[in-house]
């Protein structure tokens, strides 16, 4: 039995499409349901639907053997997992954004205030630059930070840049590209190696075709 | 109580195996000066150590690891002992864990260190002891995953690209992150054949056949001798009949500053993290002033208990065998009898009436005690009433 943890929401929908294409029996998802654990009758597979930021936790503890989740979540949560595939969807960038007129001045502030959903990524990024910042953790609508004066800048993911533009913010720095990734528990890859390798090969094929 | 009982059973079995294998047990101080753990190429980051201050303001740590204190003992008190030194331990170590990560700060470990031999026989002995430990603990279906850090070190030394690059490559290989690895390699100015070998490293895992593939790929002496070393250890372990427990992974590159040769981890399909870990660390003892090679491993007791529980292989505490009920006038006789029973190996309890249980028969029923001896006369105590409840 292989257990796959999926990040609830849009990421899961795309993951299911991909798994179907790879020949995995996803009939369990056909009926709308509120069940959190779904069984695939033919493939001896089990799906659990969890919050995106919990996917790495389930995989790290080996409760799920495989997880599908955004790279941004992996960077933020920082669990030691095997990151085997880039699934190529949910592509976006992690950026620093703020008001254009502050573009050259915010660095000189003694303590720049950064609003973000990703406090760990922000901490790592700024400490590598050797900059002192105050990180303000928000859970959504991070753009409001500079708009309301809660923060000077934000660190967030950006897909098209529309939200930023509509709120008068610009990208000050691009940190890295992110997309959906397939991660595997370090022990499962060895103890269930045949089944997992087969599945990964099938997904790789589905990605190519 | 059941957890403690099972923990003791596990510890007793391991202690017996280590003892019978010629290892002498040590206990190192719980509190040590931080220098023991930081002056050396440590396997544990400083922020993982739980720190306190002594009255002079010096920093103490709660022992985060036992291998380093043992290396210190081997380099000082035991410096003149004849080699090899075989040392075992069963102690707790203490680490700061990420908050709310479900990991405990106090970790019960058991392990061995074999110091003074650099031959593959020593690596094989240590791995064989790990295998035998799991057999004795009645763990079903476990696997020992073996790596060799020199293979990776040989490759990056050949590349000669500097520490930052090496760390980036190492972390991608460690996570088997092919994409990240590809991107870094693409921009590196190294030969294509070396690029390909490094790129294939995360895929170099599997059974003994993988070693043949790896041998074809390695084209520098350091990598070749790493593979040769694994093969020697493998062949010894095959002679011991342990082949079916062994798998290999040359992309195992954690703590590679600490380890210098063969490394390994014990895994089972019941648990998402290893149940034991170890390997060769030839430079550590020298950091304390005595240049001898060393290898060893540690088992996580709690993890063993989790696996045993999931394999439905835990024991419940045996009930008391005999309840002795003693009348006021015959205390002396009763106590002699109790001693005799205990020395014969019967778990014997003396009945003390309480407000809830003033009747010994109902008490024995409640606690599932199968036999009662009522001492109510002088004379031969064996003759006292024994009856089934």
Summarize the structure.
The complex is a heterodimer of chains A (209) and B (389). With 209 residues, chain A is of the alpha/beta class.
Oligomer class: heterodimer
Supply the CATH superfamily name of the largest domain in chain B.
Bira Bifunctional Protein, Domain 2
The largest beta-sheet of chain B arranges its strands as: 1-5-6-12-11-10-7-9-8
Give the uncertain stretches of chain A in residue-range form. Answer: none
Return the CATH class of the largest domain in chain A. Alpha Beta
User: Largest sheet of chain A, described in full?
Assistant: 6 strands, mixed
How far apart the termini of chain B lie comes to 25 Å
> Helical proportion of chain B?
25-40%
Spell the H/E element sequence of chain A. EHEEHEHEEEHEHEHEEHH
Helical content of chain A (DSSP H or I, runs of 4+): 25-40%
For the secondary structure, the number of strands of chain B is 16
Shape of chain A: elongated
Count of individual domains of chain A: 2
Largest interface: A-B, 22 and 22 residues
Largest sheet entry of chain B:
9 strands, mixed
In DSSP terms, counting alpha (H) and pi (I) runs of 4 or more, how many helices of chain A?
8
Looking at this protein, list some descriptive labels.
heterodimer; A: 209 residues; alpha/beta; D-Maltodextrin-Binding Protein, domain 2; 2 domains; 8 helices; elongated; B: alpha+beta; BirA Bifunctional Protein, domain 2; Rossmann fold; nine-stranded mixed sheet; four-stranded mixed sheet; 14 helices; 16 strands; 39% helix
């Amino acid at each position: 039995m292989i257990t796959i943890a999926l990040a609830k929401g849009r990421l899961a929908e795309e993951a299911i499409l991909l798994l179907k294409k790879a020949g995995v029996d996803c009939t369990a998802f056909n009926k709308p349901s509120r069940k959190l654990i779904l069984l695939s009758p033919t493939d001896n597979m089990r799906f659990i639907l969890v919050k995106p930021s919990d996917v790495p936790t389930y995989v790290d503890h080996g409760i799920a053997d495989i997880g599908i989740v955004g790279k941004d979540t992996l960077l933020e949560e920082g669990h030691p997992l095997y990151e085997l595939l880039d699934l190529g969807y949910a592509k976006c960038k992690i950026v620093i954004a703020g008001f254009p007129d502050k573009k050259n001045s915010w660095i000189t502030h003694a303590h720049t205030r950064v609003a973000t959903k990703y406090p760990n990524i922000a901490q790592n990024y700024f400490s590598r630059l050797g900059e002192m910042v105050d990180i303000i953790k928000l859970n959504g609508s991070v753009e409001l930070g500079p708009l309301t004066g809660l923060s000077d800048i934000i660190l967030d993911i950006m897909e098209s840049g529309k939200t930023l533009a509509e709120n008068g913010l610009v990208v000050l720095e691009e940190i890295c590209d992110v997309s959906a990734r397939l991660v595997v528990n370090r022990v499962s890859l060895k103890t269930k190696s045949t089944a997992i390798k087969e599945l990964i090969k099938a997904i790789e094929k589905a990605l190519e075709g | 109580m059941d957890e403690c009982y099972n923990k003791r059973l596990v510890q007793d079995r391991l202690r017996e195996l280590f003892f019978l294998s010629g290892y002498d047990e040590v206990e190192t101080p719980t509190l040590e000066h931080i220098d023991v753990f930081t002056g050396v190429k440590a396997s544990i980051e400083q922020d993982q150590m739980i720190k306190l201050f002594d009255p002079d303001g010096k920093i103490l740590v709660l022992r985060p690891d036992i291998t380093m204190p043992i290396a210190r003992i081997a380099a000082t008190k035991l410096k003149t002992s004849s080699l090899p030194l075989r040392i075992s331990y069963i102690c707790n170590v203490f680490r700061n864990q990420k908050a709310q990560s479900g990991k405990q700060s106090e970790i019960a470990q058991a392990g061995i260190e074999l110091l003074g031999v650099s031959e593959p026989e020593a690596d094989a002995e240590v791995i064989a002891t790990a295998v035998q430990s799991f057999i004795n603990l009645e763990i079903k279906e476990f696997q020992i995953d073996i790596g060799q850090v020199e293979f990776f070190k040989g490759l990056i030394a050949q590349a000669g690209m500097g520490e930052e690059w090496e760390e980036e490559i190492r972390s991608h290989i460690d996570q088997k992150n092919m994409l990240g690895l590809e991107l870094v390699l693409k921009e590196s100015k190294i030969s294509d054949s070396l690029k390909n070998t490094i790129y294939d490293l995360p895929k170099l895992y599997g059974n003994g056949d993988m070693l043949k593939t790896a041998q074809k790929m390695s084209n520098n002496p350091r990598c070749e001798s790493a593979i040769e070393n694994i093969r020697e250890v493998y062949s010894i372990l095959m002679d011991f009949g342990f082949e079916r427990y062994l798998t290999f992974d040359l992309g195992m590159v954690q703590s590679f500053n600490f380890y210098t040769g063969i490394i390994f981890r014990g895994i089972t399909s019941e648990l998402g993290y290893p149940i034991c870990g170890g390997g060769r660390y030839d430079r550590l003892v020298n950091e304390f002033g005595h240049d001898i090679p060393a290898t060893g491993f540690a088992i996580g007791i709690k993890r063993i208990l989790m696996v045993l529980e999931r394999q439905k292989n835990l024991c419940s505490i045996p009930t008391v065998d005999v309840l002795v009920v003693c009348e006021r006038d015959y205390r002396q006789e009763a106590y002699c009898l109790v001693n005799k029973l205990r020395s014969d190996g019967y778990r014997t309890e003396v009945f003390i009436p309480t407000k809830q249980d003033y009747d010994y028969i109902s008490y024995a029923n409640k606690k599932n005690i199968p036999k009662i001896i009522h001492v109510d006369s002088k004379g031969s105590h064996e003759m006292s009433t024994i009856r089934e409840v």
